[in-house]
Fold these 2 entries.
Entry 1:
Amino acid sequence: MKNYFLLIGLLFLGLVPKLWAQEYFPVNGISQEKQITIAFTNARIFIDYKTILDQATLIIRDDKVTDVGTTVSIPADALVIDLNGKYIYPSFIDMYSDYGIAATEKPVRKDYPQYEKSAQNALGWNEAIKSDYDAALHFVVDSKNADLLRKTGFGVVMSHQKDGICRGSATLITLQDKNPNKAMLKNQAAACYSFNKGSSPQQYPGSLMGAIALVRQTYYDARWYEAAKIKEKNISLEHWIALQKLPQLFESDDKLNTLRIAKIGEEFGVQYIIKTSGNEYQQIEEIKKLKSKFILPVNFPEAWDLSNPYDAINVSLTALKNWELAPQNPAYFERSGIDFSFTADGLKDKSTMLTQIQKAIKNGLSEQQALKALTETPASFLQISDKAGALRKGMLANFIISSGNIFEKDNIIFENWVQGIKYIVNNYNPHDVRGKYNFQLQNNTYNLQIGGRSDALEFEVFHDTSKQKVNALFQRNELVFQLETNLKSYSCIAYYQNKKFTGTMQLPDGTSQPFTAAFIAPFVAKDTKDTTEKKLTPSGKVVYPFAAFGTTVLPVSEEIVFKNATLWTNEKEGIITQGDLWIKNGKIMGVGKNLTSPSAQVVDATGKHITPGIVDEHSHIAVTGAVNEGAHSVTSEVRIGDVIDSEDINIYRQLAGGVTTSQILHGSANAIGGQAQLIKLRWGKNPEQLKFEGADPFIKFALGENVKQTNWGDKYKIRYPQTRMGVEQIYMDAFTRAKAYEQKTLKKGGEPVRKDLQLDALVEILNKKRFITCHSYQQSEINMLMHVADTFHFKINTFTHILEGYKVADKMKQHGCGASTFADWWAYKYEVIEAIPYNGAIMNNVGLITAFNSDDPEMARRLNQEAAKAIKYGNLSEEEALKLVTLNPAKLLHIDNRVGSLKAGKDADLVLWNDNPLSIYAKPLKTYVDGICYFDINREEQQLKEMKEERYRIIKKMQEEKSKNSLLKKPVLKRKKIQHCNEYELMPFEVE
Amino acid sequence: MKKKYLILSTRCALFILFFIPFTQAQNPTPAPPQHKSIFIKNATIHNGQGAVYPNSSIGFAKGKIIYLSYESPNQSMVWDTIIEAGNKHIYPGLIALNTQIGLAEIEAIRAMNDFAEVGNVNPGSRSLIAYNTDSKVTPTVRFNGVLSAQICPQGGLLSGTSSLVNLDAWNWEDAVYKADEGLHINWPSMRVYFGNNADQEEFEKKQNERITKELNQLDLVFSEAYAYSLNTNPEIKNLNYEAMRNIFNGTRKLYIHADYVKEIVAAINFSQKYRIKIVLVGGADAPMVLDLLKENNIPIILKRTHELPQRDDDAVDSFYRLPKLLYDAGILYAISCEGFWQVRNLPFMAGTAAAYGLSKEEALRAVTLNPAQITGVDSQTGSIMLGKDATLLLTTGDLLDMKSNNVLKAYIQGRDINLDNVQHQLYLKYMRKYKLIK
């Protein structure tokens, strides 16, 4: 008991173990050198996340643990702190912090776009690559935030500057704020990356695919710089190279980005630690396959106030489902056997972290895994398992003292010791004074009852049958309270000792009398546990894709014989009336009459029409993070395939319009755009599974006003080219460079050649391994590009839009290219002033392979109707018209061996229509891709009903949340960007 | 009297007949007034009021319909021109509401746009005087059967007044059908958005402030305009408030553009406060407040049916179905096709409504009689009826379906319209270049 008082005294005097500045630093005063040993006894100690010792002792000396166990001998010189059954945990580790690192200033919005770097220095060309940033050099102790983080339970954090694509190195520091030299455990603990260019004022990258390309190119550049021992200095690359030996940390903001990051890792043999977004549970099977490590946030979405149904309609079912399911994210990881650590990043109030983790536990996460994710896992990720994350001999004296289980609601963290320095989070009384006491006053017996939580005592005074709550304070062994009797008011002050309070009571007139209250009975806690909280209401399921019209189980391939349908074969059989079509295993097995198969389901299609699935040659759906990388005039290094969004609702909407295959194109902001991606609309599959396997690769080129930035506003007059004359020069220059590059790569021996992702794509074009689809309007430029191609001995595969194609159709035919145009668009800008709706028919009649495309998510679902306009404008036959959106685009895309017609052996990509497919009255009843029915008009009704039920179930649940928290926010709308070809940053208008 | 027989057999024959003499990149000459009576025999007449009459004949003179075979089978008129129209169809000319025809020529070029005046409150702005009868776009719109249009200003809170015009004229005075017929309000957007990277709370606060400010501004303008209107001869004339005077006596329509349900409800409350009859333009969320709309007798001008659903969770065909929903609810509505060059697709906007629930005749009504009714000209035009304007179309097939939409002849108040246009001229020019036609 005596020790206790001594200790308290010492602590208040600030006599804590040695720390302060390093011993060789000059001291203003006398030396503070000392060595103190402290023993914490009678505690429940978590040696590590799975080893618990009861009635155990922890001994620390200076900043280290010297012993821990149930049978340790306490050194004679130790201060002994009896913890009376309190809990000791290793302090937590947050790997994703910016503690002590000043945030970069928000970039000033410039009046004009900036293409070059800001300063003439010896760094690299792109300011988003901040590989030279060393957090250790910039770290400054931040006592206020250190305090906040310690209160949350953290003892060690890894800090970096959250700015840029390469963010340089992170530093590992403890959260004691007395001695920064000692706090820094590792000056360079990890290299950090993201896809967000942050404060870089440069235009490039202006898209997610650009960011991905920049990361990839930098890896290649670094390899070359190192291998070729380049003498011309590039400080950024030198730092990048040095960073590679550290653990590599990549920030993700979506599950699909997580997959993208891991793919980069695969390409360069890097196993990233990915700081995830929290929605990875939606793709947990894919996440499981990755060889990455993960940091999980716990900033689960907050409930909204949806009491006004007109607000509620603005919240999507997906957002509602995510609100319900996101707290299960950690449990999904645990169940899938994926190791992870937690971060408090993203929480507005970091001190709520444990509450959030408790929520995750309620949603299925085990307490053991939760503790592991706060301690051992981050320690092992950071290769500091010998220092932190557990409490073993020789490890840092970083630990938390709490009243009980940290994952229980009523738990209180009392202290967080960091490197042997005590930080008080909540004061606790050395004695548990709870219980019943009685005392005498004016010859009456009063009862004093002390209850409540040990950190929040509640006081009541009973006399006879009356009872009153008393405002009292028990602190530092001193009890102060005010007592009102029917006669007088007393001020009481007393000290606790030997199970009684002794002191004085003072009357208002200044007189006083002694006071003694003796213990008579122990405190009995009321069972206050909220039983309703334990029961977690059942939640919905993850749907694939995680979007409206997703399903819990994906549809499968069917074997069907359609009987008596009108078959638009697009083959020499033409339109077969009363025909049969047999599909099996994703393929068309037969087209004709009287087909049977014993194993097939027979569908009577009398009066109905079947066509091949619609192929959209020019689409911008299903893309994340902008369709244009418009920062440079040549961006052949970027790939739409890197940024496929398999959850875009427009995929489903277009299936409902009979589309089965779409070429997803880069936009038209620059002369040489990005690499295209052909996809099949396999709704519910992940991005890689959407890709049309084995298809020839394409690339987007563009001509005219968009490339010249004509309609971008007056600020955009800087980027070359600003005229059609310059556009030609860009092409000539790019292909000249590509040729020279190819020569260099073919040369045996000599210096290593820098791998150039941009020129690689152009070399593929020169070698006829990649094909061009070129956005084009006016005849002069169409002519020009064919000449450029002739000069370099390749062909333009397709001119897309090509609204003046009718003026040079003969030349195009001679060149051997195809055309993919609009049915009737015009008048939206000067270069389409002579666009005519007869364009398609004329080009088709001249003998060009002609297609109609959408470039618009709305029109794409009515491409059959657009095709029908060629009957009106130009007299095409119905059969020819349908080919404009089926067989012809398939030819342009070199996939007519797979799709585009109804022929045995081709893919079972087809549409069942209720009417002539060229009629406005026709609607798709079912759409099949690979023999799988991805859209069924009957199923849609059912799904709408189910979605509505699900919606109201979750809203109801959310409103129950509202009754607990009246400060919920009203929902806000997320603006959905409809992607068009020329949409780029500040584009003033959005038409093609 | 001389009798002229016109046999219209194939589309090609028609093209050659009408267009070859005019192969020049210019708009055709406006048609002169109807001097000679015209009789069209044995056609299928779609009257725009929901009925179809196969094998029927129509006669019109001096711009008015004077004969319908199903109204009075016996007739003894001597007609100047008789057109044999077996297997062909007659429709009322389509009326396109909510357009910028003649106000915009090329969207991306500032000089070629005249539909949005600067500032928030411009009730005095009149679209009519900016209406360019020589727009190259107009003939391409007529070509598909649209013969009249409402020319609407856009932008700001009170954009200005619209007029109804015929799409064949020498100048705007010539074109006007109903001048300054309505004032257009863009109801303040009451949606609050999420702002990327911004301080969200601050961003929301700003948006809410903007909403309040605009609603207050609207209220102020209307209360002042109302007070102003009480004095028939104010000492100080205010052009904006003069333009609003007729709103309060009901002789000028008030069109309120609003889609989001909160805006619709607010607009209805507003109309009650000022006791003004309004027409809702847009009305995407109308299905949520059908009863309220019905109760207040509010007509709706729908925008394109070819529109993506507003919200991810909506049925994929939500806009396709909307006309049928309003029809079932007994609400007066019209289908429009906002824009200028886009308006040529108006018939197909109606066709889609027919594919998704409406009968074809009801769909037709949504682009003929209903728009006439909403703009208050249904006593003169909008349907095939004795005494009404002879503003009608002769077609080879179903007007609402692109695969058969083929207008052979168009008459505006009996005037025989030249359907040629620059696009068709270019078609012929290049077909000849490639020797695909003679």
Entry 2:
Amino acid sequence: MQIKQALTKIVGAENVSDDPEALLSYSKDCSLSTPRAPNYVARPKNTDEVQKVVKLANESRIPVVPCSSGIHFYGNTIPNLGGIMLDLGRMNRILEFDLYNKMVRVEPGVTWGQLQSEAPKHKMMGLGPLLPHPLKSVLTSHLEREPMLIPKFEYAGSMVTIEAVLPDGEVFRTGSACVPGFPDKSLAEGVNPGGPGYLSYNWLLQGAQGTMGVVTWAKVKLAPRPKIDKTFFIPFEQLEDAAQLVYNVQRRMIGEECLILNSVNLAAILTKKWPQDYDNLRRILAPWTVILVSGGGWRRPEERIEYEEDGLREAANELHIPELPTSLPSLPGIERDLPGMLRNAWPEKKTYWKFASQGACQDVFFYTTLNRASEFVSVMSQVAAENGYCIDDIGFYVQPMEYGRSCHFECNFPYNPGNPDDVAMIYNLHAEAAEAAIDMGGYFSRPYGVVADMVYDRAASYTTALKKVKQLFDPNNIMSPGRLCF
Amino acid sequence: MLKVEEYKHQAETCVRCSYCKFVDLNWVKSSRFSRQCPIDTRYRFNLYSAHGLLHSALAELSGKLEFTPKLMDALWHCTLCGGCDTKCKRNLDVEVLQVIETLRCRCVEQGKGPLPEHKMLADNVKSSHNIYGADPKERLNWLPPDIKPAKKADILYFVGDPMSYRWPELAQATAKILGKAGAKFMVLEDEWSSGHELFATGQLAPAKEMADHNTKAIKDSGAKTVITSDAECYKTLKVDYPKIMEKSTEDMPYTVLHITEYIDQLMQDGKFKFNRRVPMKVTYHDPCNLGRLAEPWYHWEPKYEPPNIAVGKTWRRGEKGVYEPPRNILKGIRGLELIEMERIWDNAWCCGYGGGVGTAFPDFALWTAGERIEEAITTGAEAIVSSCPHCKDILGRAADANNTGIKVYDITEVMLRAIR
Amino acid sequence: MSIPREAYQTLQSIVGPEWVSDDPAICEADRYCSLSSPSDEQRRPGCSIEPASTEEVQAIVKVANRYKIPYVCTSTFYSAGTYARKDDSILIDLKRMNEIEIDEKNLYAIVGPGVAFSALQADLLKRGLITFVPGCGGNSSVLANTVNMGDAPIGWRYGLGYQRLLGVEWVLPDGEMLKMGSLSMSDDYFWGEGPGPDLRGLLRGCAGHQSRLGIVTKIGVKIFPFVSEELEPMGWAFHSFMKLPPNRFKWYNIRFYSREDAINAMFEIGRSEIGLVVMTVPPIFRSVARTRGVGCGGFWEAWKENGPKIKPNQEDLRVLLYGIGSDKRLEYEEKVLLDIVKDFGGSPREAPCRDETNFMAADAICANVVGGRFSSEVSYESINQAVRYSRVVNEITEKYKPRILEDYGTTNWVCPYELGYIAKMECLRMSSVENRDALDKWHDDVHKFCATGGGSTIFPEDEIFGPVWGNYPEKEAKIRALFDPNHVSAPQ
């Protein structure tokens, strides 16, 4: 009871709960992680309250697990060892649109739905992952280093500075945001990510799944929203050929959004009427489609699209690709709508695209290089088949990164959550697919759930060093214990 | 040899940026051939580089360092190729080479140097006026009966020890080319060693004797123009002699021309043309002594104004060497195709022989030459051509040692083949 | 005092007697690092050793730990701060570790510490690829520069140096190995972060540790698409340049008569996403760069003539347009640039299509040739902050004249990266040798303002910045104690 009282004192009674029903909603998410409810939930409204809760947790040696928004996919907010659930949903302010620096400063509760509807008012757009769930936290996406759709290198390192409450309760700002008086009473504008000093705290806090501290705001990059666009949908029978085109295009440094989807995922995204449209689309779409949006940018948009189109044609000619379609069969107007879709969250009123076909979905994702992507398709399909999963139902998404330096490779396994056999099968399939990918050199830079064990067992030297650092920052292991290798 | 104050000032100006170790950075064309300094490339410790030697010079001067075995080793392995010097003058304008030469002189003055092999050169010169200790009466043995130098002419052919005694065929080629070009020339009856290696090894007293003798002999001959086909002689007569006499090149009683300069000028004036095809793909090796080290010498008494302005100094930054004439000649020969290596002009890689290194450390000289041969081979040329007998010798040995199959020529040999 | 005999013999057995030496001349030549003035703080190492592999580095570091001998590492020796501060240290010179592997398709190179930028760049340009050559020059180490600083004007297009690190192989201070990024799980260097929290954060922040936290022995480093046309070198070493293909590049110098206009134009160029290089050209930097081939005398002659003509509110931008892939793209960029220049009232002038210092060489070293002493302040923050901070720096400078040499109110260098997401501000001030103290005090004053007023310096002094910048030195000390229990990695 003491903890609840203390929490109440910090965040107010209406923002604390130990009601089992209220806690239940935090016990599970869209993943297959073992459910576990927290003992308390606290909903702070500002950094000060976060700091007090974390201090309390540290002094009481009770776990504290931050969560930022209303939807979670990978089990990383499930309180494995109970404790306090720090629900940051109330901290949902867009603190500033910094238009000169093309950035935005957001609290953890700001969702993609929120940001992507605000940004166009400033002729900007958020650099988001593929069609994020509207309730997904912008800050978490950046903190977890989710891949963005535009492979231009200028947009890399999208999280610039952050404010975090460290496990001992210290409020710490990274990079140039550490300067006293930031943001109002200082020359600093918080855009330099390095330091302070000779460590990069941004890096240490990123990918940490709430184990190194609670991030209370972050300044992240935006991109100028192109005035007009032209979208190309280039169909391929083989992923190798699609990958080669992406290499050619990226080497020319052209285009905005650029991604490769298989027919399953593209159909899931574009279907308007379920299920008939979906089945039809899957049938008529090419096995692989490279989607390339040529953006007209800020000035002389038509001319820019013209040279980009020339470049794309040249890239395609080298591979003897005769045509560059700007539409998709039986989807009139899609070329007009798609850029807007990609620069937005998934519509709130529609079932999330990953869940639409069967009700739920498990993802296996990692980094590899584009030239190896097709090997992974074969192996993932083989593992799926061995587990009795229909390989025609696998969604694949290949996201080129940084001019094609590497790619985010994602397999989506839609399944029926209401069928226990399906769930059991998917559970195994997910683990086996991850294992197979790791064996082949797929790199899981943000391992969740069971994958974390596989990764850290192999990355011996990294795991040892990481544990040392964790011990230093969080000697009592109160921050999201049981996560990663902690 | 720099005076102490200037020596210290120059060495202190080094900021240890290591630019001296690289080919001018805009000219780097591959990682494989990006280095400039042979000792740095082979031995790697910083001591084995201009930066290390300049720093040692300061430490030695201030009494913090003696001529330790490693300092001796680094100092005498340096080929004095001057690559470091021209690179430093991109950014810092330090007289790098003069500091290294002065450090050698200080080593000799203190009785720690030179190496026994170098002392032997001085002994030979003393006894017989040539570095080989050969009979001075045999100096003109290279002259075949069909070549008859004039008794009196405006042009004097300065042959040098290597061509007089070791490679007479190159002296003969030179004389024949001059003949074909219609140049009336004489030779010195009493030519002494140019003293090139004595200058390089800090043995200034015997070197000065050579300089004095040859200068007087040239002056007495009445010749106004001295032609040589030996790059070492060229640089010594043009640079080292006025330097030791504290004069400028223009104040010497003669003008020195390399055979390639002379013939090139005739070609430019329309007075000479090669008339035989030489079907061959060649690459050209710039000898250090004809290239970046061959700029005229400008005597200067150090005088500075704050913060560091050298008043009245004419700089030698490497651009006034003899680079174009040999190339013009090769390009002027029908059938011959010239393909350049990566490191050329003021960025040329040394053949490895210079600075007394060929005499004292033949293995290292061969290694350095081997690097150049490898570079030449990457061009696809059948032959590498140079304008210095020692370059030809060491490059030829390196080519043979590795069975590379690439041929090595002196430019006089190529020129002769192109004349009917 | 010297290195214990047994330890020295062990070192000999690790690398072979040819590659370790305690000869005083070898050690003295490794004493002073580049750029900084020789001082007593810089000690002659007890021995110098040149390992050829990571295994050898590891073995050396373990010996140093066993015998509690301090060590410090260096590579191409164009280094900032990596010198022995303790007597009888082991100087580990990594320049023999100079392997380069290039993955052309996937845009990364794997390099050892001995690889200089010029070497890697030359191999890349032939393949239509490019890496950064930092302001200090192509003679610096790719690895050392990337883990320490890593910026160059082409960062306008290709981002911040700090983001270029991929897989990292790191011998920790106690000799244990840490492999990061994709390398942590395989032999592949292609991806840098994680797994999970990104321990590259231990390696560098605003700058790196300069050997104070072990030795990085190999990194994967990002490389970038570039034009396939040749950049042909021309000219003598002291005045060399590269001819740029005119169908791919065009330089513009643009004069603005109000600083505000220049800065707003810069923002707009960023939003329009054009150019390979965009920066201001402060008169003092331009004059220093032109010192090549004319020496100290030439600089002062020109500066005394041109300095008084500086108009304080005038700002010159230099923009390199970039037609990668097509002539049409270059035409597009030119049209957009000229539109912007017109909108902001600038006067554009096309400059020769060549480059002296951005692709291979650089000219920072030239600052030394002007004689006397110089000091610079480098800060990374926004374009706006750069301008405002620069103003403060100029005000501080006024207090120190004439002991700080006349700068005629020159503006400072603003060099933005990533299309303007971040910008570097650099200023340069000179004094005579005798007035070096004034320069030091000026720098102290600048940093005192910087710490509390909103600068973002690249090399903060712990005692000035620590207390107001989140007590970062305490955190660093804890990290060092954790990974360097014997306090042997370049102790201060």
